[in-house]
Amino acid sequence: MKFLWVSVALLGTAIVLGGHAVARDDGRYAKSPLKSWFDSLRSGKGPCCSDADGSAVADVDWESKDGHYRVRLEGQWIDVPDDAVITEPNRAGRTMVWPIKDSLGISIRCFLPGSMT
Q1: Rounded percentage of the chain residues whose pLDDT exceeds 70
Q2: Degrees, nearest 5: CA angle 60-39-77
Q3: For the residues of 71-94, what is the DSSP string, one character each?
Q4: DSSP structure string for 37-53
Q5: Nearest partner of 95 among 65, 64, 58, 60, judged by Cα
Q6: Which of 78, 85, 95 shows the shortest CA–CA distance to 45?
Q7: Kind and range of the H or E element at 110?
Q8: Mean pLDDT of the chain
Q9: Contact (CB, 8 A) for 19 and 84
Q10: Tell me: the pLDDT tens digits for 97-110?
Q11: CA–CA gap between residue 113 and residue 3 (Å, rounded)
């Protein structure tokens, strides 16, 4: 339990200091109690690939209006497709997004709403 709280505190500090915190799967999260949960996340667009491909989003960089979400990435607001929203409870607590960048711009593969504290 102490490991979990230390991990949450370190992640929170990284998010506050780094804006959009991007995790990379370099093995450091292999023993996290949430790893298997992250690995299992899916939206209507398919698997989210794990927390290694996701980015934490600050509360000021996402919003909900009329039952739909949008998120600010790289300075632009992007509408989250309804089928990209993960509907299961958020065990991580933080809002996360799994963007895909290609020649057409940025699209959202998965979006996990947070609590907006």
Answers
A1: 70
A2: 25
A3: EEETTEEEEPPGGGB--S--SS-S
A4: HHHH-EETTEE---GGG
A5: 58
A6: 85
A7: strand 105-112
A8: 79
A9: no
A10: 999 988 999 999 99
A11: 24
Question: Does the reported pTM lie above 0.90?
Answer: no
Number of CB atoms found within 10 A of residue 73's CB:
19
The residue type found at 115 is: S
Q: What is the spatial distance between Cα 27 and Cα 1, in angstroms, rounded to a whole number?
A: 20
Task: Mark 39-57 as b/e (b = at least 16 C-beta within 10 Å).
Answer: eebebebeebbbbebbbbb
Region of residue 86 (phi > 0: left; psi between -120 and 50: alpha; otherwise: beta): beta
Q: Would you give the DSSP letter of residue 104?
A: T
Around 104, how many Cα atoms within 13 Å sit in the side-chain half-sphere?
5
Q: Write out the two tokens for 87.
A: 């509907």
User: Backbone phi, then psi, for 81, in 5-degree steps?
Assistant: -60, 140
| Amino acid found at 111 | F
